[in-house]
Amino acid sequence: MRTVPDMHHEEVAREQGYRNVCGIDEAGRGPLAGPVVAAAVVLPAGYELEGLTDSKQLTARMRERLFEHLIHDPTVRRSIAQATVEEIDSLNILRATHLAMSRAARMLSPLPDFCLIDGLPVPGFPLPSLSLVKGDAHCLSIAAASILAKVTRDRIMLQLHTDFPQYGWAHNAGYGTKQHLLAIRNHGITPYHRRSFAPVAQATLPLEF
Questions:
Q1: Do 179 and 97 belong to one domain?
Q2: Per the domain annotation, does 82 fall within a domain?
Q3: Are residues 103 and 172 both part of a single domain?
């Protein structure tokens, strides 16, 4: 049975004295091209939005609908940040992801005093935090952040697609699909490809799937 995210973790944090509790998630760790995007979201106590759940459980149309609700709801505080391809290549994807998460949290005003972060612990995170594996499936503010991060990144890749349509980024969002790998072999790489990722770094690409 599918888990429905709720505000249990936010409520526990508030019971411990924290007032500005945000959820943080990212999108784009795995692709061969494009930035990694992170979002931070503070939901008001008792917040409800029909259909709000982990972005991976939603269709693109459902994510877009929820994204617009979250962006235009004056009771929701949110920020969106990214780490560039250059930062991914210089730092590695894990550290770049942590950088994007930290940026998103620091962009909130007022600054959150506690952060619920999807995934494993983030070393050196600048604010008090709790990391939750599969947090986007259990924690409502993380689920909201997952939607903001995913839709924002998809829109970035759609925009980049207009300049580099041969790679199919409008459909594969930069992931290493067969079409994308073939395009890299036939057309080379762009400034938006992650040179530190093996399929991009290799001169010839294996096409057995």
A1: no
A2: yes
A3: no
Residue 8, amino acid: H
- Give the model's confidence band at 202: pLDDT under 50 very low, under 70 low, under 90 confident, else very high: confident
- What's the Cα-to-Cα distance from 147 to each of 11, 22, 23, 91, 105, rounded to whole Å? 21, 14, 11, 25, 16
Total number of domains constituting the chain: 2
- Domain range spanning residue 44? 8-161
What's the chain's average pLDDT?
Answer: 94
- Whether residues 59 and 141 fall in one domain: yes
If asked whether residues 97 and 110 sit together in one domain, one would say: yes
How far apart, in whole angstroms, are the C-alpha atoms of residue 64 and residue 83? 22
Residues 152 and 191 in one domain: no
The one-letter code for the residue type at 18 is Y
The band of 1, judged by pLDDT with boundaries at 50, 70 and 90, is low
pLDDT value at residue 105: 98
Neighbours of 185 (CB within 10 A): 14
Tens digits of per-residue pLDDT, 31-83? Answer: 999 999 999 999 999 999 999 999 999 999 999 999 999 999 999 999 999 99
User: Which backbone phi and psi does 37 adopt, to 5 degrees?
Assistant: -120, 140
In 3D space, the residue among 140, 144, 6 whose CA is nearest the CA of residue 80 turns out to be 144
**Cα–Cα distance for residue pair 209/103, rounded to 1 Å:** 37
Q: Which amino acid is at 108?
A: L
pLDDT at residue 201, as a whole number? 87
**Maximum distance among all Cα pairs of the chain, rounded to whole angstroms:** 57
Residue 206 lies in a domain: no
